[in-house]
Amino acid sequence: MGDSAYAPCGWTAPLALAYATGRLCDHMRILWTPVWRLHNWFDLHIARVGVGPHHGDKTVVKLTTAQKIRGAVLGAVLFPVRVALAALCFLVMWPIASLRLAGLSEAERARPVRGWRLWLFHTPILLLSRAVFFFLGFLWVRVKGRQAGPRDAPLLAVAPHSSFMDILVLMPVGLATVVSRSENTKIPVIGALLEFNQALLVSRIDPESRRQCVTQLKERLTSNGHWPQMLIFPEGTTTNGTGLIKFKPGAFMAGVPVQPVLLRYPNKLDTVRWTWKGTSWMQALFYTTSQLYTNITVEYLPVYTPSQAERADPALYADNVQKLMAQALGIPATDYVMESRVPVRRLGWLSLPAEPPARDTVQLLQHAGLTDMSAILNVMIDSCHSGQDGWISLDQLISLLGLKDRQTAKKIWDLYSKGEQLNLRQLAVGVAAVSGVWRVEHLIHTAFTLYDGGRKGSLTAVEFGELLGALVGYSQRHSAQLYTEMASRGQPTEEDLQALLTDHPTYQKLYTQYLQPGEAELTGAMPPATGSHDNRGRQNGAAPSNKKAD
């Protein structure tokens, strides 16, 4: 395990010690064979809802009564003990991490740590970090492939990012430098560890902070090994791991070689996934620590050297690395990005959610026995025209639709509103768009009349944005740009809207491929992209062909 393969001078000894510790844990597998069989008996059943990129933002745990009892028995013993031991390790790390940069000036802190501050503090933090995850149930980490050094691959791109426990990957890579939100520095222990790591900090609400972060990132990645390797999760947020969402191009702007790193959790039970919908982080932690052990595999792919075209186009570079990693993982590479924690696909100036809420609404209505969508739409449209301004309460929704099950009404309500009133126009237009009971011309006419306040025959910018949001079931951030294009000849009329959604080569796809999808679009299926190999054995991706983007 040579220095050139892993880290700059001075990092070899700590990494060698960590490697030896990992190998010792690997040999312990033999002793755990009887435990493994017992572990299978106590398995919990974890269901990742919505397999496929359309639901990459959702993870739900479903347990039978017997499984809940088994999990409670194991969890009652293992959870408190493991969390307490992990917390103890964090408390021990706190002062050690704080001492590493103590007494250094701001200029000295802006340079990579060298000398005694490196070897004295790095090894204890590395071992304590590994101990945290050992106590949480990650008894060993299986590593495939070989990590390249910072001169060969200054950047490590890790995917899929599906859990807060993915940070375990920092241990086998020797605590590579990371990028983190500046707000995290205020969290006890975590702030000290980020300072220890010399992490790049960025504020998500300050554009200047983002620009400075990109500049510093380029400087570190092009330092020719002067700085340790940078580790990023290019998806930028957690998903359920059933598909890779679009990689953010920021880290690829430096145009340096990158080593893709794959994360897998090859367990019969998938307990670690945590996304913003479904299983909470506390549930994921409880389910994981309630297992006797949890497997994780870290796989290094060959270094990916960008072509000249990729160096000139960071988005192309990021897309090709995404497709390469998706192919190696055997999951789809998608064109979805995250907006406000919702996976969306871009169509011109429009943002299309992975799954329109109206589609769930139609299914809920059908399960409730309301199968005549045409009659339901007529009732909602008539109510919108009755002078109530389209806003209704939950009780009014139940009465209007004739729902006997209040729980069904509440589920529909939650798809559209978090307050005390629901916009019936949005519900009606959304259901009409996905149900297929009306022709597109009639759909556009109805939507226009509902949002044309004052019956003036045209739409204001606000009305136009609300109409588009109702059609796709998601608030549109960039509707103003599209409105400006349409309003160059005056406020858009119904004819202008008809022309946009039926004749425009881009936006006509809103109805033909999204609101009325065929089988492929509905399932989100996408064949894995292929890559080509250069004559040095390093992989260069083919030009991207489309399919899912904090």
TrEMBL record:
The protein's predominant localisation is: membrane
Q: Which organism is it from?
A: Aldrovandia affinis
Molecular function GO labels: 1-acylglycerophosphocholine O-acyltransferase activity; lysophosphatidic acid acyltransferase activity
TM ranges: 72-96, 116-141, 153-175
Q: Name the chain's protein.
A: Phospholipid/glycerol acyltransferase domain-containing protein
Annotated region (Disordered) at: 521-550
Check the UniProt entry and state the signal peptide residues, or none: none
Quick one: which pathway? Lipid metabolism; phospholipid metabolism; Phospholipid metabolism
Name any Gene Ontology BP term.
phospholipid biosynthetic process
Where in or outside the cell it occurs: the entry states: Membrane
Q: Which UniProt keywords apply?
A: Acyltransferase, Lipid biosynthesis, Lipid metabolism, Membrane, Phospholipid biosynthesis, Phospholipid metabolism, Transferase, Transmembrane, Transmembrane helix
A single Pfam family it belongs to is Acyltransferase
Family, as annotated: Belongs to the 1-acyl-sn-glycerol-3-phosphate acyltransferase family.
What's any one GO cellular component for it? endoplasmic reticulum
Q: State if Transferase is listed as a keyword.
A: yes
Q: Which residues form a coiled coil?
A: none
Q: What residue stretches are annotated with the Phospholipid/glycerol acyltransferase domain?
A: 155-266
